[in-house]
Design brief:
389 residues, alpha/beta, D-Maltodextrin-Binding Protein, domain 2, eleven-stranded mixed β-sheet, two-stranded antiparallel sheet
Length: 389
C-alpha cells in the first residue's frame, strides 16, 4: 500500500467528460481516474490535516435528517424507507460517479459538506483517514457489526474497522457469446486469445485503467500493482500494439451489450454481468467467467464524513443496514455480495455471480495506489487511441 501520507491528485483519462455525465452506479460503475503522488498536497486542503476527530455520536436521540453521499442506485429502497418508518430520520441520497469526485467534494468542503455517510472504495480509505476526511466510528452504536462475515472485516486499509466497514464487494471477469466462441474460455490468456481471433472487432474492455492494465498482469500471473518500468512497458506494448486493434469499445456497462447482443466478448464486473444475463432474452447464450490465474477484488465501505451534521442518525443507518433483513434486501437489489455472514442464498438468482468458493477468493487481489498510476492512465489512454475508441 502506498504511504498514506502521500498527497492525492486526480487524473482523468482524456475525453472522459461526456462519460462523467452518465448516470452511474455499482451496476453501472465507471472508474475514470487514478490516484498518484503530486506536489499539490491534499493535506493542505483537508480538514484537520493529519489528525482524526473523535466520535461525535454518543447514543443520544437521533436527528431528524440524514444525508448519504454514495454510488447511484446502491441501496434498496425498502431499506431506506424501512429505516425512516422504524427510526424516524428522513434520508436524502445523493450520488457521485467516482471516488475521485467524492474525495474532491470532501476536500473542498473542509468538513462542511453537509454529508453524513459516504461510501468510498477500500484503497482510497488510508489517505482519507490520514487527511481527516472521515470520522472515527463509535462501535458501541454498531452492534449489528456482529452480522458481518469476518472474512470481510479487518482489511488492510482499516485493520480495526475504526473508520469503515464493508458495504459491498465485487470482482472482475468476462462474459462471452457461446454461439460465436464455441470453445471453453477459463483464463485471462484465453480472453486475449479470443479477442484476437473469434471475437476480433467484437470485444469490449472496461473503460477503467485498473481493469485494462490489470488484465495483462493477471494473465501473466504477476503482481498487478507493480511499479517496475520494464513490466509496465511490456504491458504497454501488448495492450497498445497487440490488443487495441481488436477492441471495438471500452465499455463499463456491458449489460446493455449483452441484452442487445452487440458484442461477443466483454470484460465485466460480476454484478454488471449478472444484470445483463438476467435481462437477456436468451440467457443461455452467455457464459460468465471468473478467470484465472488472478483477478481483482474491490470493496466499497460504509464510512462517516468528518463534520457529519447528523452523527447519531449516521451510526443508526449503518447499523440498520447491517441487520440480517437489510443485508438480504440490499443483496437482492444491487446484486453484489454485501458481506453478511450465514446469508441464505437459496432464493438468489444467479448466486454464483455473487458468492465465491474459497479457491476462487484466493485468486482475487486488491488494488494498491502507488506512483505507477500516472503511467497506467497514460497506457489506458494510448490503448483507447490505438483502438479508435
Amino acid at each position: 500500500m502506498t504511504d498514506s501520507r502521500n498527497p492525492i491528485r486526480i487524473l482523468a483519462p482524456e475525453g472522459s467528460a461526456p462519460s462523467i455525465m452518465r448516470e452511474l452506479s455499482r451496476r453501472r460503475f465507471l472508474s475514470i481516474a487514478a490516484i498518484a503522488g503530486s506536489a499539490a498536497a491534499l493535506a493542505a486542503c483537508a480538514p484537520g490535516g493529519g489528525g482524526s476527530p473523535q466520535p461525535q455520536a454518543t447514543g443520544g436521540a437521533l436527528e431528524g435528517n440524514l444525508s448519504v453521499y454514495t454510488w447511484g442506485d446502491y441501496d434498496s429502497p425498502d431499506v431506506v424507507s424501512g429505516f425512516t418508518s422504524e427510526l424516524g430520520p428522513k434520508v436524502t441520497l445523493d450520488s457521485y460517479s467516482s471516488n475521485e469526485e467524492l474525495i474532491a467534494k470532501l476536500v473542498a468542503a473542509k468538513g462542511t459538506s453537509g454529508y453524513d455517510i459516504v461510501v468510498p472504495t477500500g484503497v482510497f480509505i488510508p489517505q482519507m483517514i490520514e487527511n481527516g476526511l472521515l470520522l472515527e466510528f463509535n462501535k458501541d452504536l454498531l452492534p449489528n457489526m456482529s452480522n458481518m462475515d469476518p472474512a470481510y472485516l479487518g482489511r488492510a486499509w482499516d485493520p480495526s474497522n475504526d473508520y469503515s466497514i464493508c458495504k459491498a464487494w465485487g470482482t472482475t471477469g468476462f462474459v462471452y457469446d457461446k454461439n460465436v466462441i464455441t470453445r471453453e474460455l477459463t483464463t485471462w490468456a484465453d480472453f486475449f486469445d479470443a479477442a484476437q481471433n473469434e471475437a476480433s472487432g467484437k470485444t469490449s474492455m472496461l473503460d477503467d485503467p485498473a481493469g485494462t492494465l490489470g488484465s495483462y498482469f493477471w494473465a501473466n500471473d504477476t503482481d498487478w500493482n507493480t511499479e517496475d518500468p520494464d513490466q509496465l512497458d511490456a504491458a504497454r506494448q501488448f495492450l497498445v500494439s497487440d490488443i487495441a486493434s481488436h477492441i471495438s469499445a471500452f465499455d463499463s456497462y456491458p449489460s446493455t451489450a449483452i441484452v442487445q447482443g452487440s458484442q461477443v466478448l466483454m470484460q465485466s464486473w460480476n454484478g454488471e454481468a449478472r444484470l445483463g444475463i438476467q435481462e437477456s432474452s436468451d440467457p443461455d447464450r452467455w457464459q460468465w467467467v471468473l478467470p484465472g490465474p488472478q483477478t481483482e477484488l474491490w470493496m466499497d465501505n460504509w464510512a462517516i464524513a468528518a463534520g457529519a451534521p447528523h452523527p447519531e442518525a449516521a451510526h443508526a443507518f449503518i447499523d440498520y443496514s447491517m441487520s440480517p433483513e437489510s443485508l438480504a434486501l440490499n443483496l437482492d437489489y444491487i446484486g453484489y455480495n454485501v458481506g453478511g455472514k450465514d446469508m441464505d442464498t437459496s432464493g438468489v438468482e444467479l448466486s454464483e455471480f455473487i458468492f465465491f468458493t474459497p479457491e476462487q477468493l484466493e485468486t482475487m487481489h486488491e488494488q494498491e495506489l502507488n506512483d505507477s498510476q500516472t503511467t497506467r492512465v497514460e497506457i489506458h489512454n494510448e490503448m483507447k487511441a490505438a483502438a479508435g475508441a
